[in-house]
Amino acid sequence: MSNTTDNTPKISISVVSHGQIQLVANLLHDLTQFCHVSTFELILTLNLNEALPFVVADFTFPIKIIRNPKPLGFAANHNQAFTQAAGAFFCVMNPDIRLHDDPFSLLLTCLRDTSVGVVAPLILNEKGVMEDSVRRFPTPLIILCKALGRCKSSDYVVNDQLLFPDWVGGMFMLFSREMFSAINGFDDRYFLYYEDVDLCARLTLRGYKVCLSPKSKVIHQAQRTSHHNPRYLLWHLASMLRFFLSLPFRIIMGGRLAKSIQTHQVFKIL
Q1: What SS3 state is found at 24?
Q2: What is the CATH number for 76?
Q3: Which of 17, 125, 27 is nearest to 78 (CA)?
Q4: Residue range(s) defining the domain that contains residue 199
């Protein structure tokens, strides 16, 4: 890990607002109220031209503002924020995340294990129900199954123990600075959707684990109205196709298929 001085934030939090500045204000309030142990900075990217309903200087932690001349995608925005980050750890967080305590202490403990590439908290909805943010890598068959209204159950059984899923949702991900840099961050070719899946796949190919820390919990106030927009559906389909045609997906699925065939042959011999 990088050495830090007293004036250097331990965690750089990247938040992107796409007309969601009031949600950002709520998140800033939560960070002020609950996150006292770890020093941090917040890098706020305004993907659209918005007026700030708060004064940056009023907060006890540094806030850096990036105003985009034109909207960028999820991957490009967070990669851009990383170039401005000073912390030893880099956190990608949605503006619609709400906190009820400090999630970082447990997450940072997980990253002491050098085999862990990224860690995420348990994501709950506003009713306290676990969201489907920890999953196995998608396949065309799984997507078809879900489209037909089946395969609704969770991919993993989540309890209080650390879990190592295939991938975690991009609404809250924490990396060491070195790890995010080593994998070159998110793939900018994904404008929206599947950036988190692709990144976790690339970590897996490098031999690193994806970790969920269930005792660390945050609330996701999901704003899903935009999902009814045909443009978002097209972005989703384009990203899905890009992932299914990607080298990481082909290598991982090819390896699992080969292992399955080998296991089946062993059982036939036995």
Answers
A1: helix
A2: 3.90.550.10
A3: 17
A4: 11-269
